[in-house]
């Protein structure tokens, strides 16, 4: 085994990805909220008290100097021992590998249709589920409803005690996060295609426009440019990007004129762009043309086109050095950068249904969990990187929106409303 060679190779890979190994000792606020999209992030992506001694020692021993990653936090026994000098390859191989703590759900996994309609006469003897979820470690706190049509977006801006939902009923609703009361309704004049929040800003995509609110000053802006529906938005390198029917548009906020100015138009996809993600100084776009394009955030030039999916790429997620993509082709693909900087698939997870949405979060034991909305009205929860099952969440209608909050909270759209869920506090084992 060539210890130095392996470590040296790893170093080059991580350097090219721009990894900053000098970590700030503060815990990343966005990571705590389950949605840090910075890579590299200069803040800690672990709780300081988390016992990570063996993983840290292993990382130092192989000389890669790489930051803490997936396996270090996943709690898999033996993962550090399994890791050889070629850290990167061993690490990649842990995708889809079931750990010793794999909890497979064994029950009739179908929700009772009669119970959903409120008239199952079998009660406790019914062999189908009388519950909105399956699996341990999380529970439903609340079910809020109020829209007239399907909910298409949920956003909990960081540091706010207000939740915003958007719907195909052309309205935006504000909810008090403490009382669960709807505190306001705004008529947008168009079906909500997508919603995001960034800092003080709330952005809502509707046909032919993006609405922007400064949640502190209540100032409202209407950004023109899109033709047709806005399917996805993301902020990166001080630009707001929107995936539209005719490619990707970008705006920049001008503090002097107090306005959003058109900054760029990224052409290349042959069909509408429906998913966007930012990470590792790259913008990733997924399209109805089945491809993912990788763009430089600095030059806005397309660097690579990924064509492994065979249907619409519905959602993208950056998690540490990996890009995860999901598609109506019923797969989740995990991408990693090779020596030459290009992305290639390192793992493919197969579902029996098309995938609509991916979100990542940590449970209250700091274990990474992937939330996947499928087009059979279920959200499936998986441990990462093993993809072992954590549970399932059922909805009456298609689940278009998932949002991750602080303290183990998460939200899933369900028809005209949404459900509030929470991970259980860790149980002391001694
Ligand atoms: Zn972070
Ligand atoms: Zn029943």
Automatic annotation (TrEMBL):
<dbReference type="Pfam" id="PF00400">
    <property type="entry name" value="WD40"/>
</dbReference>
<dbReference type="GO" id="GO:0003677">
    <property type="term" value="F:DNA binding"/>
</dbReference>
<dbReference type="InterPro" id="IPR019775">
    <property type="entry name" value="WD40_repeat_CS"/>
</dbReference>
<dbReference type="InterPro" id="IPR001680">
    <property type="entry name" value="WD40_rpt"/>
</dbReference>
<keyword id="KW-0479">Metal-binding</keyword>
<keyword id="KW-0238">DNA-binding</keyword>
<keyword id="KW-0677">Repeat</keyword>
<dbReference type="InterPro" id="IPR041367">
    <property type="entry name" value="Znf-CCCH_4"/>
</dbReference>
<feature type="repeat" description="WD">
    <location>
        <begin position="266"/>
        <end position="305"/>
    </location>
</feature>
<dbReference type="InterPro" id="IPR020472">
    <property type="entry name" value="WD40_PAC1"/>
</dbReference>
<dbReference type="InterPro" id="IPR036855">
    <property type="entry name" value="Znf_CCCH_sf"/>
</dbReference>
<feature type="repeat" description="WD">
    <location>
        <begin position="144"/>
        <end position="185"/>
    </location>
</feature>
<dbReference type="Pfam" id="PF18044">
    <property type="entry name" value="zf-CCCH_4"/>
</dbReference>
<protein>
    <recommendedName>
        <fullName>C3H1-type domain-containing protein</fullName>
    </recommendedName>
</protein>
<dbReference type="InterPro" id="IPR015943">
    <property type="entry name" value="WD40/YVTN_repeat-like_dom_sf"/>
</dbReference>
<feature type="domain" description="C3H1-type">
    <location>
        <begin position="106"/>
        <end position="133"/>
    </location>
</feature>
<feature type="zinc finger region" description="C3H1-type">
    <location>
        <begin position="22"/>
        <end position="48"/>
    </location>
</feature>
<keyword id="KW-0863">Zinc-finger</keyword>
<feature type="compositionally biased region" description="Low complexity">
    <location>
        <begin position="52"/>
        <end position="67"/>
    </location>
</feature>
<feature type="zinc finger region" description="C3H1-type">
    <location>
        <begin position="106"/>
        <end position="133"/>
    </location>
</feature>
<dbReference type="GO" id="GO:0008270">
    <property type="term" value="F:zinc ion binding"/>
</dbReference>
<dbReference type="InterPro" id="IPR044715">
    <property type="entry name" value="WDR86-like"/>
</dbReference>
<feature type="domain" description="C3H1-type">
    <location>
        <begin position="22"/>
        <end position="48"/>
    </location>
</feature>
<dbReference type="InterPro" id="IPR036322">
    <property type="entry name" value="WD40_repeat_dom_sf"/>
</dbReference>
<feature type="region of interest" description="Disordered">
    <location>
        <begin position="52"/>
        <end position="100"/>
    </location>
</feature>
<keyword id="KW-0862">Zinc</keyword>
<keyword id="KW-0853">WD repeat</keyword>
<dbReference type="InterPro" id="IPR000571">
    <property type="entry name" value="Znf_CCCH"/>
</dbReference>
